[in-house]
Amino acid sequence: MEPLIPRDRAQIAPGAVHVPDWLSPAEQHAIVIACRDWATGPVPMRAARLPGGQRMSVRTVCVGWHWQPYRYTRTADDAGGARVVPFPDWLVRLGRRALTAAYDDPVAASRYTPDTALINHYDDQARMGMHQDKDEKVREPVVSLSIGDACVFRFGNTETRTKPYTDVELHSGDLFVFGGPSRLAYHGVPKTFPGTADPATGLKSGRLNITMRVTGLD
Ligand SMILES: O=C(O)CCC(=O)C(=O)O
Ligand SMILES: [Fe+2]
Predict the structure, then answer these.
(1) Would you say residue 125 lies in a domain?
(2) How does pLDDT run across 119-167, given as a tens digit for each residue?
(3) Would residue 80 count as lying in a domain?
(4) Which residue of 61, 64, 118, 210 is 20 to 30 Å from 112, comparing CA positions?
(5) PANTHER family of this UniProt entry (predicted)?
(6) Is 187 annotated as contributing to ligand binding?
(7) What's the rounded Cα separation, in Å, for the pair 119 and 144?
(8) Is 102 helix (H, G, I), strand (E, B) or coil?
(9) pTM of this prediction?
């Protein structure tokens, strides 16, 4: 194996924190297994269709609430109609630990109760354009976990999808949290680095990203 070059925890913008190598290899492996299970149903992993008719290049499956551009529902109305699996307790606990790691505020972290997660898989061509995560009714932080191939994560500003932005390399095991003044910052994935993953995660190819959110729906 290549020697690991330490990367530093960094505040990318107010409320936006990158914590490299946050997940252990064993945790990454366990998450890959869980995502593989979710991807097989009851709701299939699919490339969501945008209102204009074109499909996204990433494939997505959700837990807790089903997301389609641009709303949340309990049933996957654009993907077979089944009810999505409940949001698991272990993922709530992981979300709280992530918030503690990012903000060092255990009290706020203990109140964090994500109720949806979007699991995105990027093949070697997949990208995600600059967008805001704004279909949630509340503005609790978004917790993002990356597994598999590295990527460029472009983290911008709350006003426009263009500059100023910061390009951050997200590697397998990295945590990125954005909340507070950065909660509605535009962000996207202009590029992945195919073949950079350690196969020990169990992910055969591509990049997996999990974002936990609080919908504010009931
Ligand atoms: O893949 C990523 O790192 C970001 C995913 C994302 O922004 C989203 O699902 O809304
Ligand atoms: Fe997003």
Answers:
(1) yes
(2) 999 999 999 999 999 999 999 999 999 999 999 999 999 999 999 999 9
(3) yes
(4) 61
(5) ALKYLATED DNA REPAIR PROTEIN ALKB-RELATED (PTHR16557), NUCLEIC ACID DIOXYGENASE ALKBH1 (PTHR16557:SF2)
(6) yes
(7) 10
(8) helix
(9) 0.97
